[in-house]
């Protein structure tokens, strides 16, 4: 039996349309399933936990939605030991990318029904779980600004959701004030000045393919921290295109760290997001929980790139 969790609003309404196609296919295949159309992240977590408790054995919980929808069910899946299937229907879909799950719904459904179970680490932070990355500083402020804006609603009405984020980036670039921050990685303290963002990553990308931590692997028992510090607004603007390829890691104002736990403390309180969803403000303590989740992925996943060296990363030690 499969539990499908559908966020009809994900991807600006794509979730509903994708589910209509998926449901037709499930009926054609005679698959046994229950469907849960969820209305909000908070109620979804509770409803999924209740649904999973009603039966001893579930083949999988398949999310039809984006990274935020996946975020809403992580705690329930971890607690019940149920594997995660993904039919991507969000705007970013970075979780699907990281596990080689096709973005096309029919192929993604195949992966969920016939794929292999691969172990995945989870990031425990602020009393909840995150799969892609916990970000604080500039990135989180962009998300907060966009969500609170009038232009988001306008752009969504015009089916131009990405434009809202572009406006949000420019708006935040003008208004954001970087400040000093301390990052404690596996007990070692690193001090930085003029910090724009500190992202603690489990998967290589967020924001729809931005390779913020290109070396991150979901099953290595490690988290990768990217700190951008000590650069001007113009330098930050020029950094964006390099993140598409992950080549920003060699810039002098980018420091990568790697370990099993990370605590981030900005001198001035900053917002934080996990899987693109707000997880509060203030100091962050993140711990990698190895193999806490199983994800159903296509059998032909490409070989993982060689893992980088253990311990702290490329350059550490401050601005
Ligand atoms: N299970 C859920 N059911 C309904 N709404 C949810 C659920 N989980 C999260 N949400 C809300 O729906 C919004 C959109 O969901 P989601 O993040 O999955 O899609 P997206 O933002 O289009 O894609 P992505 O996160 O991949 O960029 C979230 O930001 C959150 O506010």
Structural class: alpha+beta
- The CATH class name of the largest domain reads Mainly Beta
Unreliable residue runs = 302-319
SSE string, helices as H and strands as E: EHEHEHEHHEEEHHHEEEHEEEEE
Ligands in the model, by name, code or SMILES, are: adenosine-5'-triphosphate
| Domains (count) | 2
Work out the number of β strands.
15
Helix content: 25-40%
Provide the β-strand percentage band. Answer: 25-35%
Report how far apart the termini are.
53 Å
Major beta-sheet overview:
11 strands, antiparallel
What does the average pLDDT come to?
91
Label the CATH architecture of the largest domain: Sandwich
Number of helices: 9
Radius of gyration: 19 Å
Indicate the CATH topology of the largest domain.
Tumour Suppressor Smad4
User: How would the global form be characterised?
Assistant: globular
Structure description:
This protein has helices spanning 10-29, 41-53, 67-80, 94-98, 105-114, 138-147, 150-157, 161-175, 233-245; strands spanning 2-6, 33-37, 60-65, 84-88, 116-125, 128-130, 133-137, 179-185, 188-201, 223-229, 254-259, 261-266, 271-274, 277-281, 284-297. It contains 9 helices and 15 strands. It is globular, with a radius of gyration of 19 Å. The strands form 2 sheets. Strands 5, 6, 7, 8, 9, 10, 11, 12, 13, 14 and 15 form an 11-stranded antiparallel β-sheet that branches. A 4-stranded parallel β-sheet has the order 2-1-3-4, sandwiched between helices. It has 2 domains: 2-114, Probable inorganic polyphosphate/atp-NAD kinase, domain 1 (Rossmann fold); 133-292, Tumour Suppressor Smad4, CATH 2.60.200. The longest helix has 20 residues, at 10-29. The chain is an alpha+beta fold and 319 residues long. Helix 2 (41-53) runs parallel beside helix 3 (67-80). The N and C termini lie far apart (53 Å). Bound molecules: adenosine-5'-triphosphate. Adenosine-5'-triphosphate (ATP) binds at residues 7, 9-11, 38-41, 44, 65-69, 72, 90-93, 276-277. Its cofactor is Mg(2+). Keywords: ATP-binding, Kinase, Lipid biosynthesis, Lipid metabolism, Nucleotide-binding, Phospholipid biosynthesis, Phospholipid metabolism, Transferase. Pfam families: DAGK_cat, YegS_C.
């Amino acid at each position: 039996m499969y539990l499908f969790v559908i966020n009809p609003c994900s991807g600006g309404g794509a979730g509903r349309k994708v589910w209509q196609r998926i449901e037709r296919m499930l009926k054609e295949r005679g698959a046994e399933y229950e469907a849960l159309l969820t209305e909000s992240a908070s109620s979804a977590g509770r409803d999924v936990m209740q649904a999973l408790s009603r039966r001893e054995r579930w083949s999988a919980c398949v999310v039809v939605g984006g990274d935020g929808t996946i975020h809403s069910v992580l705690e329930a899946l971890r607690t019940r030991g149920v594997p995660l299937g993904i039919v991507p229907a969000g705007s970013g879909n970075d979780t699907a990318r990281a596990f080689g799950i096709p973005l096309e719904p029919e192929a993604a459904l195949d992966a969920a029904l016939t794929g292999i179970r691969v172990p995945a680490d989870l990031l425990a932070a602020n009393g909840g779980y995150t799969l892609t990355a916990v970000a604080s500083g500039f990135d989180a402020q962009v998300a907060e600004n966009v969500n609170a804006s009038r232009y988001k609603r306008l752009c969504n009405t015009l089916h131009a959701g990405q434009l809202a984020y572009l406006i949000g980036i420019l708006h935040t670039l003008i208004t954001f004030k970087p400040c000093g921050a301390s990052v404690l990685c596996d007990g070692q303290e690193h001090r930085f000045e003029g910090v724009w963002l500190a992202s603690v990553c489990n998967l290589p990308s967020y924001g729809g393919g931005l390779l913020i931590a290109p070396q991150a692997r979901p099953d290595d028992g490690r988290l990768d921290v990217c700190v951008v510090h000590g650069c001007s607004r113009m330098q930050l603007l020029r950094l964006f295109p390099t993140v598409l390829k992950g080549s920003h890691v060699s810039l002098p104002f980018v420091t990568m760290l790697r370990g099993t736990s990370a605590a981030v403390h900005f001198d001035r309180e900053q917002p934080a997001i996990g899987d693109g969803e707000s997880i509060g403000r203030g100091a962050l303590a993140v711990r990698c929980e190895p193999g806490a989740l199983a994800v159903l992925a296509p059998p032909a996943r490409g070989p993982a790139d060689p893992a980088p060296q253990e311990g702290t990363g490329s350059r550490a030690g401050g601005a």
